[in-house]
Structures are given as structure tokens and as C-alpha cells.
Amino acid sequence: MVNNGLKICWLKVFFLITTFSLVLADTCPNLSGWDIRASTFCEDDPSKYHCLENQAGQIQEACITPKYIKEGHYPVLSIREDALLERPCPNTHYQPYGQPSNQYKKVPCTYTKGACAGDGEETCDDGDTVSDRMCRCDFTRGYASSEYLLSNPRSKSCYKPKIEVQGCVMLPCENGTELNKAYQCVPICPSGYFRPKFEFDCVPRHITSSQSTSTEPLTSKAVDDQSRQKEAPEMTGHVLENNHPDYAIILSTIGSCFMFGLLVVLMYCAWKGRIARIINTCRGHKDDSDDESSDLSETGEGMKLRKHVDDGYPYKEGDVIHKNNLKDRIGCITVELPTGGKEFGTGFRVGERHVLTAYHVVQGVFENLWKTVIRRLKQRRDYVKGISEFGSKSIPDDGKWSLTDLLINLDPPTRETFKSIGKGMISDTCKMSFGYVDDKINGTHFTFSYDAPFISKEHDIAILELLPVSDSVMPDALSLADLYTPTNHLYVLGHPAGRELIIDPSCRILNDEHQLNSAIKKGIKLFTSLGENKSKVEHEYCECKISQNHIFFHCSKNTAHGASGSPLVRIVHDKAEVIGILLKGYPKLYYNKYRQNTKVNKKPSVLIESGVSMEKVKDLLVREHKLVELADIIFK
């Protein structure tokens, strides 16, 4: 009885304190104390407890029978009587489903609309009371959506706002091309034409926005051009003011002289063999210089006026990526560290049940395993001969890292002991997740075998083996190109820093020494202007040398850090094939010091990403390490 009395007493005290605090704070109880407050305020039926705004915008508590509130609305309390009213969600919130009024424990509606506030983002659709806001990228400033090829490849241009991942990335187009609303690089319009912001076609500049089929506003450049067209009088004697036909005669004479002089110049240049240079210059070509676009391909101007993108489906390469289910074949690698932290990387399916990635993604756990095993084996006198090849080393040379082969001469119990060590240090700490798109992981978690089919520390390559999971089917392997032939651009698909899958749709490849040296020169100039030692900066770029073994390219800052092991993909004849693996970027000081520097991020051409070609991977397997059978499985 005493205990019950004390319990009742404490409940009363708690009720008084809670009530007093609510009055002072003019707010509802925390979610953790919601049920307790409901039980004390509405003793007869706690389900009737409501804590909502009233019509005057004040927080009010009430015991009232719950009412079903339809989607797009939230409940408010009447001031004069205990009645529930409905109000539509404010522009900042939305409610996609209906629910009883006593479940509204947040005011007003449950979900806050996302903001289109990232670099290059603008609002595409403001949403309504039941749907979130939609964003798009300002392609007129060179921004493209980083996910439209993956999440909804048939979308026009809009996507849901992102919180952790930037929605837009810079997409550099080659000289003479520009982005359209489908985020594709298309030839710029010829002289006298322009492309309205939300249209695919080039139209004559004299066409006004009312004559255009677009329902969207024109670009500021197009508006300015049209304004100039309207303001300029026609060159005829009938429209000149003050009835002075002499002006028309003078202008006509000047025009005739000009045309005659131009004809003479053209004939002279043709005689000198320089007419081709003039034509190229008129089309936008430039002499080689330090300009970022000087080493890019021709403009393509002079094409007939037609739609450059098919109306039915404007994302051909994106469609190839979607149909090949690349997002399901590329996974996020998570490595749990002994310190409690995690490291992330990207890998992709190859062979039968293999994964290809950058070695440094799993370097820590594999080297720790082998150091532990070799140290313990060296303490066994009966097994010193079996590991004599290691000498003072603690890890194997490049090639097959098979713990099973190393332990083959041990007695079964001891062998199982060491295999348990391998399982605990590799299989239990490394996992791979496929299908990580749209903030959720749809696929199965796979783990790795402690026997690595191939590791090259020198070239930063790892071919690992996935362990089967019951009732789960491994994703299909990607197609690999065993011969690297230069191409203009590639796609990078990866999980930077363990986030959802990101695609960089148009990374520009540096195919020759001129392009590469130009980028290096600009990088040295930029970073020395920021106070870095010139010799140090030059040293950080020193590994950048053109060869068939390595691929150098520019990509966005979204995929430039933390996406090691990502496949470098090109589209050839409606087929997606991997031509290399993303390994690291140059200069290293950018990633350590200048990632948030605005001045550097405005000049992405000074940042060089590198990958090893699949041709080099096959060469290592076949020629250097005689792993022909593995090569046949990987490159089948």
C-alpha cells in the first residue's frame, strides 16, 4: 500500500511539473513523454489526447474523439469548442497520406519540402500539399543532374531534392557544343539562330516567345538578342526618318565597297591557301593556347537545322546504362575498422563471383590479416620452412594471396584455427552491397573470402571473391574491354564516401600530351598562386604521363573523392563496357586541403583523375603472373 501510495504521489507530481512546464514553454510534450502526458491529461481514454495549434496559432491541449484527416491537410483545434478543423499544409510542408488526428505529433504536416539550394539547382516544380518539391539543374550554366540516368532515366530533367548528395554537377561540353534540357552536349546553334531554354530545336532569333512552342521563359541571351532585333530599323529608304534618301544611297555605296573589299580578301586568302583557316576560325576554332577548350574537338556547326535529340527518348546512352542494369552490378564496399570506424569504396562484378576494385580500399584489413598469420606461423618451429619465402616480409608479393594454400601442410585443427582468424578479419569485417540507389539498399549484403584471387599492391588492383549467400543471386558481371582505344569521354559510376550511387555522365579524357600538359600547367599556376611551393606542386603531378596503361580524365567533384574502385565505362554500339578502374586523383594536396576552395572548384580542369586500364589488368594476369585461367574467367 505504501509503495502504491508513493507511486500515485509521484505521478501527481510528474503531472503538475509537466503541466507547469507546458504552460511556460507553450509547447507539446516530447515524443518520449507523449504517452505519459496522454495518460494523465485524458485519464478516461488516452487515445483522445491532442496537442495541436488552435485557430489563433496557439498550442492547446484537448481530450477529443480523433477525426480522420485527409491527405494534404493537418488538424487544428477550435478555440470556442472542442472541435477539430482541417487546414491545408503550408507551402513549406506536405502530407502524402491521411491519418487520425491524434497521430499528428508534429505541427503542421509531417514532411518538410526539400530545398533546391545546391550549386546549379533551381526549382522545377514547387510541389503541392501532398507532394515534395522537385529540382532541376541549370543547364544554361553548365550544370547537369548527377542521377537522372540512374533513378528515372526517362525523366525530362527533374528529380527530388537531395540532402547529403549534391544534385547537380558541372558537365563540361566540348568546344562548339552546349548543354540542352536533357543534359546532353549538342552543337550550338548557327549564326542567326538560338535555342530557347526549354526547347530542343534551334529557332530564328526574330521569333518571339509567343511564336515559339515553348511555354517556358527564354534565356536572357535570347531575350537580349530579340530586343536588339526589334530596336534595329530595317535598312531601306522607306523607313528612314526625315525623308532623306541620300542616306540610303550612301549606305548602299558603303555596303557595295565593303562587299567588294571582302571579295578581294577572300580571293587573296584562297590564293595563299588560307581559306580553310578562315572558315575554321568563323566556326569557332582557335589556335592552340592555354585556353581550356583549345584542345577539344570540332564544333559541328554547319549541320542542317533539325532536332538533335529524338523526341521519343532523348537519352540514348543513359538508356543503355539503364537497360544494362549497371546500378545493380556496382556495389558499395564497407570495411569495418578495429578502431570502430568505417572506410568505404566501390567495386563491380566481374567473372563468376568476383569483384574488381582498387587495392587501397581493402589494403588495411588484408595486410593486417597476413601480418598476423605470418607472425604466428613464424613462432611455430615445425612450419618455418613453409614460409621461408617471406623472409623479413610480412605480406605476399603481387599475385594470388591464398591463405588456404599457405596453410595446406598444417594439421586440420591448426588449419581451421587460422581459417577462423581469416574469417574474423576479412569475411566478418568487409561487406558489399549492391543496388544502393534512392537512399535505400535493395540488394543483399555479400561478404568476401579471405583468399584473394589476385592483388597487386604496385598497381593498386584487387580481384576479390564474394561468398555465396543462401537464396540470393549475385548480380551479373560487367563486360570488360581488354584493349584500350582512346575515346573522348567516359562515365564514372561509384559510391563516393559510402553514399548512394552517383554517376558522372561525361568525364572528358585527356588523350594526348598536349591536353595533359596544359591541365598540369594550369594546376601548377593555380596552386602556386594560393601559396603552395612550386616544386611540391610539380612533384604531385609527376606521375601523370600518357600511356595505354593509365587513363587520365576530368570529372566532377562529386565523384572525385571517395569513389576509388569505380568502373570507368564507355558506350560503344549500344553496349556498356568497362575500360578501366578509378584509382586516385591529382594533385593530392587538393583532396587534403582545397576541396572546399571556391577558386579551385571553379577550375575543375586543373584536377586530374586517373585509372588503370583493363588492358593493363589483363596483361598483369596473363603475362606477368601467369594467371591465365583467372584472366579467362574475368574477361570472358
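The record above closes out task 2.4. Task 2.5 opens with a second protein, given below.
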Amino acid sequence: MGRIRFGVLGPVIAEDAAGRPIALKGPMHRAVLGRLLVARRRVVPVDALIDDLWVAPPAGALAAVRTFVAALRRALEPDRSPRAPATLLITQGSGYALAAAPADVDAWRFEDAVASAPTADPATALRVLDEALAWWRGPAYADFPDAAWPRADRSRLTELRLQAVEQRAEAHLALGRPAEAVPDLDEHVTAHPWRERGWYLLALALYRSGRQGDALAVLRRARDLLAGQLGVDPGPALRTLETDILRQDPHLSGPDGPAAAVWERAAKAFDRVRVGGARARLESAVGLLRNLAVTGSDGLSVAREQRAAAVAAAEQLDDPELTARVIGAYDVPAIWTRSDDPVQATTIVAAAERALSGLPPAGHEPARARLLATIALESRGTHDPRPLECARQAESIARELDDPALLVFALNGAFMQSCHRTGGSAHRDAVGTELVALASRHDLVTAEVLGHLIRMQASCATAAFDPADHHAGVADRLSRRHELPLVAVFTQWYRALRADVAEKVADAAAERGYRAAAERLDHAGMPGMRDGLLPLALLGMRVRRGLPIGSLSGADWGPYEPWVRPLLEPGRTPLADVPDPPADLLAEALWWLFARAALDAGDVPAMVRARTALAPAASECAGAASGALTFGPVSEVLAALTRS
């Protein structure tokens, strides 16, 4: 039957892997299941079960409990042979335990979601909480309203649900959507009038929606209900909010309110002053897009789209110098070596090459260096020597001009072209070190973050987790201070890898860590990193831990399919037909997969090919240079290749 999921956020239920309900017979069977779920994988003695199931246990209570358990086992594990030990509802000593995975119980998933929301960015928190609140089908343990055994868990889950409703409203407010928070908050405070946080959020949402009078009326209503039902006055937060609304305090418009007003006035002034000036508008627009690209997933996607339009518009003006400036002004830091939009990247590279050839042979060195750096940055994962040479030329020009910002851009291009052979983490660490030093001296924040992320990845490559922790921590602090939310995508993947490899957390916890990182990546606007990364990480985790990998055979491997399939489906593709992996941060991981497939097949030419490719990375861990996953030390697979 496969994976079983359990639900207690409503009546107690069980479902198979396809979401079909599993017949649990009568209420006593559901009560036993619910009682075991309350125990959270701990053993419940039979005596405790009997006391919880009956007010006055009958003479045959023990036999009845055993009958209920046997029926539940048949329902939950119908394919288990009669003499095989149970793996889900297990007997231990004189009691029973339900060995459900944390991800398979709706209440446990709900707890994790509510716990993760406060530290997530508002868009992610809203998505997580929307999904989590939808799991509720009624009161927790709804079919046992009078039983004592679910009472404490029901109260705790109910409180968490109320917190989730309030966190969801906070996310709406943080995203500048106060009107969307009002209906749910109104229902929330009507049902739970003692929750002052709910009243506070409702009044604030109304005020930010332009409904000052309604906000004050809500606060008066809260005061009347609290005094009438509980005999208490509103707390200081509600009293202060009422005063601030009456004063129309500027801080009530939200953290972005004053800044948004300044932005809007500046944009209007620019439009008023710059009636014409297509060239100036294009260059100014690219400056805005460069800043937009680091503000989050929506900003990154919009910036990527509009950048292509800006380059096309510049080329239509038939001015190579303008085109060079428009292309080169987009010096957004790049840390992942696979393109988010390969078609657009090819277009940008072609435009940069045309602009290069159109520049006068003398002069315009800064523009020339930026075009060369752009070619290096946009030509990701290629073995073509041209982008590598462009990176070297850009770096040389930047050093000669002694231009820190230009050198940062050129070094980013050098980083992107640092994977032409495996085992390049030491070189990348040197690039990251110089970026951090340059950025610190010249107050180039995004470059400083980039340098720390590069050093975090390079440290992972050799399992040096203490320095990796340092660089991840600095990157996170800078990202919070300067509002760079996409940084957390990379540091969360790193922490999932660290928990798996360095902390050696339990199998289920390791998988949860990778899945949580993938959820953030789902909404980061970076398909080049997202596609296929989660199943590849889970494959690495399971291979290293000696766990079965067959359940991953149906996964969407994205761009990694050519190197995964020979391992999962031996003989399907001749290894001679498998291409070399792209020159990117996962090259060692993909060569590792190829090497294992070659060893399994006893294919000597393929083994020689893999050994030659992996030899420079002998001191590294396969895939860990990505800061996201690993298949283990390269030295181990090299030793196996040498023996065979």
C-alpha cells in the first residue's frame, strides 16, 4: 500500500498513498489509533489504553484492545504476511506504538508549519500558513469530544491554529495587503474575543486599508467585550494603537510606508523632468532593475524579463556604446552556476558580443570589461573556452583601472567560469576571499554577501563546516540588515546539508530539512537552481546512508536526468552515450553518479573516463561545492575505480 497518512485535525482518519480513505471499522478502532497518535511515536501501555478507552473497563477489555490493534494492523498494512513483524503499528513490551513519520501526521506537519512561519519571508509564510490551515477539517479529534485522552493535545493544537490565523494576517500586512487580512480577522475576533492580538491586527489592517473610523470602532468594540466578558481593560498594545491611530502616527503605515512614499514621489519627479531622453531612461531603468533583482522572487523574475527588453531597445537605437552601458550596468551578483533562463542568457551573450565588436578599438575600457564579465556570467555551465577567456580579460582590465566595483563584477564572472575542471573549490575560496575584502573596504554590500556565500560553498566542498557556519551566518546577518531575502535560499540549503552530514540527524529529519529548503526554493524565482535539486539531494542522502533509492525512480530529475538514469536503470543508456556533465557546481556529483554506474556495469572505458574527470577533486566531497547536497568523499569512489 505504501505510505500511510493520518489526520487528527478533524475526525481521526487514515489515508493511503493515493489519498484514499482506509476503513477503520468502528469508533473504538479510531480511538485506539487516535490515542497512539497522541503519544507521538511513544509506547502506550495496554493498561493505559484500557483506562483511556473505557470509564469502566469490561471484563474482556484486554482481549478487545488486542482485537482492535489486530484489525488496525490489517487495515494499515494489508500486504504484510501473517508472520512478518509489523512496521507501523508495533508491539513493544506490554504496549503499542504507532511509528508514523512526522510528515505523515497532519497535526505534526501543522506544528512544523506554524513554527517555521515567523522566520520565513512574508510571501513564504503566507503560502505555508494557507496550506497548513487548509488541513483542518473540524476541531482536532472531533469524533471524541468528551474523551479525556485527547484534551491536552486538542487544546494545544487549537491554540496553534489561532496563532496561525494571526501569523497569516501579519504576513498579509507585511506584504502590503491589509484589506485581504480583514475578513478572516473579523471572524477570528468574533469567535475568540479574548485574543487581544487579533483585535490589534484587525484594527491595524483596517487603518492601513484607509478605514480609520472602522479601526477605531473595532478598538472600542474590543474594549467593551473585554470589560464585559472578562472584566479587564485592554492591554497596553491596544491602548497605544488607539492613540497612534488618533494621531495618525506615520509608523502605522508599515515599515515600508514612508520609504514607499519617497519612492513614489521620486518616480513621479523623474517622469515629470524626463519627458524625452530614451537613452537616459534605458540606463536609469537598468539601474532600477539591478536593485529590483535582489529584493525577492517577484523582483528577480521581473528584472530578468525587463532586462531583456532593455537590451533589445538599446540595440534598436544602433548605438554600441549605449548598448554596452545598458548590458554592463546589470551587475547583479550570481552564485548559482546554472542559468535560470538559458534562452535569454544566450540572447544577452549574443548582444554583448555584438556590442563588443561595435566598440571603437581604443578607449571605453570600463564598458569593454563589463561586456566581457557579462559574457562570463551568462555563459554558465559551458566547457567553451571563450567565456573563461572573457572572464580573465575583464579581470585584467578591472585591475589595471583599479576600479573596485568593476573588479567585483569581473570576479563574479571568474567564479562562474571556475568549474571547467573538477576540484576547483580552493580557487573559488580565493575569489570569495578577495570579494569580501574588496567589498568591506568599499562598502559594496551585495558583493560582500556574494563573497561569503562563495566561501560557504567552498568550505562545504571539503566538509569544513565551522568556517562554512561563519560565512553563512555573516551572509544571513547582512541579508536581514539590507533586505536581501534571496540569500536565505542558499543558507537554508546549506543548513539542510549540514544537518544531514555534520550533525547526522535521523533519516526523516534530514529529508525534512531538504524538503523545507526546496519549498523556499519553489518560490524564489530561480528555476536554474530549483529544477531537479531536491530529488538529487535526497538521492545523495539515501546513497550515503545506505537507504533504498527505488522510491525516487519516478522523480522529476530535471537537467540531471542523463546522469541519474544509468544508476537507477542500468543498461537503459550506454555509458558511452552519456555526455560530460556541465561545468558547474554539481559536476563532481554528476561524475560520481556516472562513476557508480560504470562500476556497477563493469564498463572499463567509462571507469577510466570517470577517474580522469574526478581525479582533481580527490580531496573534496562530490556535490558539496554547491553548498546544497553531497554524495560523499570523491576519494572513496576514486579508490573503487582504481581497484576495478
